[in-house]
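Please fill in the sequence for the structure shown.

STRUCTURE ENCODING:
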């Protein structure tokens, strides 16, 4: 049962023929996922597309989100990449999360959002503190919109505050980053395989199963003795 992944790069910079630091971190995770037979299908740089502001899955003429949404949901694992700005996740990432808010109203007949059974991990970079706060923002929002977050789900690097060296400019990936990427990929691939083999049952299905189990295990009602007439 093959598992596939897709990445979104929420850098604030449009493509210019030069990779961003977020691209490099996504690449570190992509290499780690290969060790678990998970191929990264595509990296979507969000600012290269006209993603309209809003909280629906289609904000009308010219909105690029419907096509991006379709691509994202076609895969089992989402690598959500983005930079730290002003100590928090950047504005492009926030726009993506706002568009995913529509998932709450797009449930199937057992209450499952389109993202149910799909795994999300984070790739965060920056030149200031805020990686933990950014992942906290990201994971809470992704969990709210139906994504499943594995253990050790964030791979990040932050340089010296107000420093001039970016992650993409490092001569080598730090050992700790590589070790973390390996853990993130292993946990995410494992979880995605489990969920693909046995999806979440959904609220109504779970309730029906509990009721059936309760009926099956219930003690029979006591028998009333009949008195002779």
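FILLED IN BY: designer on duty
SEQUENCE:
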């Amino acid at each position: 049962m093959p598992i596939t992944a897709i990445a979104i790069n929420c850098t604030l910079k449009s493509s210019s023929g030069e990779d961003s630091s977020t691209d490099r971190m996504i690449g570190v995770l992509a290499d780690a996922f290969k060790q678990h037979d998970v191929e990264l299908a595509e990296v979507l740089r969000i600012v290269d597309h006209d993603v309209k502001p809003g909280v629906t899955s289609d904000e009308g003429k010219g909105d690029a989100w419907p096509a991006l949404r379709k691509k994202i949901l076609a895969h089992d694992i989402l690598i959500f990449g983005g930079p730290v700005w002003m100590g928090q996740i950047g504005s492009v990432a926030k726009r993506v999360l706002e568009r995913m808010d529509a998932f709450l109203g797009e449930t199937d007949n057992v209450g499952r959002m389109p993202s149910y059974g799909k795994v999300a991990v984070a790739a965060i970079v920056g030149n200031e503190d805020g990686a933990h706060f950014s992942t906290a923002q990201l994971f809470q929002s992704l969990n709210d919109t139906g994504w499943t977050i594995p253990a050790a789900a964030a791979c990040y690097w932050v340089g010296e505050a107000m420093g001039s060296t970016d992650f993409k400019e490092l001569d080598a990936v730090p050992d700790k980053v590589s070790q973390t990427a390996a853990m993130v990929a292993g946990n995410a691939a494992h979880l995605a395989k489990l969920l693909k083999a046995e999806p979440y049952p959904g609220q109504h299905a779970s309730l029906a199963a509990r009721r059936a189990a309760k009926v099956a295990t219930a003690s029979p009602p006591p028998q009333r003795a009949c008195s002779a007439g």
